Predict the structure of alanine--glyoxylate transaminase.
Amino acid sequence: AGAWAVADVTELPKMPPFDYTPPPYSGPTAAEILAKRKEFLSPSMPYFYSKPVNMVHGKKQYLFDENGRRYLDAFGGIATVCCGHCHPDVVKAIVDQTNKLQHSTILYLNHSISDFAEALASKMPADLKVVFFTNSGTEANELAMMMARLYTGSHDIVSLRNAYHGNAAGTMGATAQSNWKFNVVQSGVHHALNPDPYRGVFGSDGQKYAKDVEDLIKFGTSGHVAGFMSEAIQGVGGIVELAPGYLPAVYDSIRKAGGLCIADEVQSGFARTGTHFWGFQTQGVVPDIVTMAKGIGNGIPLGAVVTTPKVAEVLTRRSYFNTFGGNPVCTAAGLAVLGVIERENLQGNAHAVGSYLKERLNALKDKHEIIGDVRGRGLMLGVELVTDRNLKTPANIEIIRVMELMKDMGVLVGKGGFYGNVFRITPPLCINKDDADFLVDAMDYAMAKL
Ligand code: PLP
């Protein structure tokens, strides 16, 4: 790792100034925490960097480590911290609600829960207005799949290869990347060709991929399906934006086969795409069920399913709720998040800064042969690294080296995609142009060092 150490770099890209000094930290060191983590936490949980960083403070788009060192957080808690770390309005909402009532259960009334449901419904098109709160994205997608099955009487669900929809029994079946799947019973889920403009067999031809879904319904099911579930931009799969025209055509086929259309907005929702509040709107479709989590609470564990009154009816056949879903502290945070996105025009900022950042990343592609593809929208951007542009050979080792060096320079980016060779840039939506420049300059510098 010595070759990539900061000391080796002569003219480091400069981090934009930021007027905040975190209070001194006196807790355990990174090494002590790592030792405990290795002993007491599941070995299934990976960590970034050969020397993992101990983050002790967050402010806006920055994180601070145990030594007070500042990092631009361009991963945003995996596309979660949309308003910026510890946004005062969100913190205040959480503290105020915590002091009033932490938990009572959905069996009693509480305005924090209903107010947030109303506000969330107001962000939705058509008659998507019935909200069910969950604790995570996985749980939201489990519920969406169950609702579609109950509503239609069919068990068959179509999802996309390369999708990530969660890691419980049903959603792991819908997830379609072998590295995220255990030996689950893959009951009733069919995986369609991924409409991936970069790696997909039909390039950017959305109609051809949509025809595959039509065939899948014809040849892989009874002709009657429960539904179709997809992200608008695949996140874990490496920021893959679905080929243009794909969703309208597929929604059409699914509805003709009696199914419901489920939009998984866990990553692409809450203004992240910049042009729209929800990712599905970028393809001009209106789903029957929308699932969400991550950005909904700026990091507070919360998820939701929003559907129409007609579809929601299916759950009235039994009692169906959970202990923590709709916890008033979480919903107070959610309401504050919607307020911040609106007041601070974070969607407009995601569009402006995201477009600028994408332009600069595309220019970087002209300079560095290792960049195979730059893609995404708003502040959900991907940079795929390849060792051979024609063969699209994944640059797995190189991406780790670039990532390590960027961290040494103070920039944190995510990494993903099926081959683990895609940078995932999903920062808080409050980053500015100077941050974008800093990120690209750091990536440029690191790539030049390869
Ligand atoms: N759906 C998508 C698109 C996701 O990216 C994720 C998580 O990364 C999930 C669902 C699962 O959400 P959670 O990790 O909150 O269970």
